[in-house]
Amino acid sequence: MKQENSPIYFITSNHSKFISLQELLQPLGVDLRQLDYDFDEGRGLDIQTIAKSKLSQAKKAFPNKRLVVDDRGFFIPALKGFPGPFVKLLLNSFSYPGIIKLMKGEADRRAIFLLRLAIFDGEKDHIFVANEEGFITDEPRGDNLHGWTELLYIYGHPSFPGRSLAELNDEEWQEYLTIIEKVDGLCDAAGLFNRCMKADNNRIQQAIIAREIIDLYRDSQDKNRDGCVA
Known about the structure:
The relative contact order is 0.16. Strands 1, 2, 3, 4, 5, 6, 7 and 8 form an 8-stranded mixed sheet that branches. The protein has about 230 residues and is α+β, with helices and mostly antiparallel strands. The chain contains 7 helices and 8 strands, in the order βαβαββααβββαααβ.
């Protein structure tokens, strides 16, 4: 790549999220820097479209730089996709018990975390797709958020039927992380960071990075079984 020794800029106003990703990528020799920008995200519900738009805006605002942006959401089919990309607004105003009330009597308990990670490597755009389908519990359960979002009180994974992720003990939590670290889209994203820096590109390292990227974004929301769209 033409800019293989240049910094990569993560466009976010969330400094804690930036620090987490910076610490994650330091072992790869990635010089990650933060830039803040007031994106026009519109009112659309398609987070892939939002992520592409944000990357396009970032490229215009910060030309000749390698860039990373993201967007994420939590979609409940029985509620016509609510809350979608508006998770923060939901938790600030409606909170997770409100979802339980809305889901009362619903047979379809599916819930889907979505992440779209958009990267401009200096030559072309890459959009990485990560989805994970779980379920909404019948009531808030558990008391261990493992440092993640409050949605874990009401969200479960098929590997642990009938239980919320907040009910998992530390050993079960590690088992869950092992399951989701196999997310193809995020492994591909980790590989791209490796290629950008000419770092070791072995699958073990990619899996570790993929898991850490999931950790990073899940405390704001999301994940996968789709793939990579370049």
